[in-house]
Amino acid sequence: MSEAIIQFFQGLSLSDELLVTIVSMIPIVELRGAIPLGFVLGMDPWVLYALTVLGNLLPVPFILLLIRPVIRWFLKTRAFRKLGLWIEAKAEKHKGKVEKYEFWGLFIFVAIPLPGTGAWTGALIAAFLDMRMKKALPSIALGVLTAGLIMTFGSSIVAFIVSLF
């Protein structure tokens, strides 16, 4: 996957730093994909961590504020109705995992670096739970910081093992 992302952005002449920051903003990929990409590019782990956390957090306030009106609009339009229904279903699917424990549930959901979890889905769930920004944003930010540490540490181990061969 790293090679496909590199090839896609190669024609844009982006610096490695800008590349990993942009990749960390992309839904689904987020920092879980951007950190291993940064290791493939040979970036300093701490610079990589900082850039991917920043990139992953940039869209969160906008998602928290705008996702509900955007989805309502999607549901009213013929062209985007299926996408709106898919987004609603994704939020509903994971909502129960977070609902019971709110702040800490959202933190754990975002912090565990598994497919389908992360800042985007966490913000989507928080919006559907009507969590206030002052509660949701710190929870998601702590989750992203934790997921970033897990991914950086894990990628460091993998890079070390690969360097042995």
Number of helices: 9
Instruction: Please state the average pLDDT score.
Output: 89
Q: What does the oligomeric state look like here?
A: single chain
Number of E-type strands: 0
What percent strand?
under 5%
Structural class: mainly alpha
- Residue share in helices? over 70%
What is the N-to-C succession of helices and strands? HHHHHHHHH
Tally of individual domains: 2
Q: Cα distance, first to last residue?
A: 21 Å
Main beta sheet: none
The residue ranges in which pLDDT falls below 50 over 5 or more consecutive positions are: none
Shape designation: globular
Q: Radius of gyration, Cα only, in angstroms?
A: 17 Å
Fold and architecture overview:
- This protein is an all-alpha fold.
- The protein has two domains: 2-56, no CATH class; 60-147, no CATH class.
- It is 79% helix and 0% strand.
- It has helices at 2-10, 16-25, 30-40, 45-57, 60-76, 81-99, 102-111, 119-128, 133-163.
- The protein is globular and about 50 Å long.
- 35% of the residues are buried.
Furnish the topology, listing elements before pairings:
Blueprint: H1 2-10, H2 16-25, H3 30-40, H4 45-57, H5 60-76, H6 81-99, H7 102-111, H8 119-128, H9 133-163
Helix pairs in contact: 1-3, 2-3, 2-4, 3-4, 3-9, 4-9, 5-6, 5-8, 5-9, 6-8, 7-8, 7-9, 8-9
Summed up:
The chain is an all-alpha fold. The protein has 9 helices and no strands. The longest helix has 31 residues.
Descriptors for this entry?
mainly alpha, single chain, 165 residues, 79% helix, 2 domains
